[in-house]
Amino acid sequence: MSQIPMTVQGAQRLRDELHELKTVKRPAIIEAIAEAREHGDLKENAEYHAAREAQGFCEGRIQDIEGKLSNAQIIDISKLTNNGKVIFGSTVTILNLDSEEEVTYKIVGDDEADIKNNLISVNSPIARGLIGKNQDDVVNITTPSGVVEFEITDVQYL
Q1: Do 99 and 45 lie in a common domain?
Q2: Beta strands of the chain (E only): which ranges?
Q3: Which of 20, 54, 75 lies at the terminal end of a domain, its last residue?
Q4: Domain range enclosing 59
Q5: Measured between alpha carbons, how far is residue 150 from residues 1, 90, 139, 154 in Å?
Q6: Under DSSP, is residue 66 helix (H, G, I), strand (E, B) or coil?
Q7: In angstroms, how far is the first alpha carbon of the chain from the final one?
Q8: Labelling 27: which of 69, 78, 96, 104 has CA 20 to 30 A away?
Q9: CATH of the domain at 101
Q10: Between the CA of residue 128 and those of 29, 39, 89, what are the distances in Å?
Q11: pLDDT tens per residue, the chain (158 residues)?
Q12: DSSP class of residue 157?
C-alpha cells in the first residue's frame, strides 16, 4: 500500500481517537457483553446483540485507524521556510475575483478533509489548482459551477 500524506494535526487526532477506542470504548463494550450474558438466553437477548454489533464497529475502526497510521507519511510544514508557494499542509487564503469573496483553506490529506472547518483534501479540484502556485498568483480553477478565477492573497505554513 502506498504512503498517504497526513498533517501532524491529523495524525494526532487519529492517535487520540485510537487511544479513546482502546482504553475507554473497548473495555465498556466488553463489560456490556459480560452483563448481557448474565441475562441468559443469548438468542433473544437484544442487549447482547447490540453490544456485539458495537464491538464489531469498534474493532473495525481500530483496524482502520491503525492501517491509516501505519501507511501515513506525516508532513510537518511548520519546519519549512515559507517561500509563498502553495504545498500540502499550507493554509491558503484565496480571493474570488468575480464575487470578491475571500476564503481560507488548509490543504490536508483525504482522511482529514472537512469542508465545514475549511480543511480541503489535497485531491480536491481547488487544492489541485492551487498546489505549486505562489502568493499573488491568479489561477483559474474548474468548479462544479464552471471556471472561477481566484487570486492567492496569503500562504501560511502553520
Answers
A1: no
A2: 4-7, 72-75, 91-96, 102-108, 119-121, 138-143, 146-156
A3: 75
A4: 4-75
A5: 35, 17, 5, 12
A6: helix
A7: 29
A8: 69
A9: 3.10.50.30
A10: 42, 56, 13
A11: 578 899 999 999 999 999 999 999 999 999 999 998 888 777 778 889 999 999 999 999 999 999 999 999 999 998 899 999 999 999 999 999 989 999 999 999 998 999 999 999 999 999 999 999 999 999 999 888 889 999 999 999 98
A12: -
Question: Which residue reads 433473544 in cell numbers?
Answer: 44
CB distance 73 to 2 below 8 Å: no
What is the C-alpha to C-alpha distance for residues 156 and 78, in angstroms, rounded to an integer?
9
pTM here is 0.81
Residues listed for the chain = 158
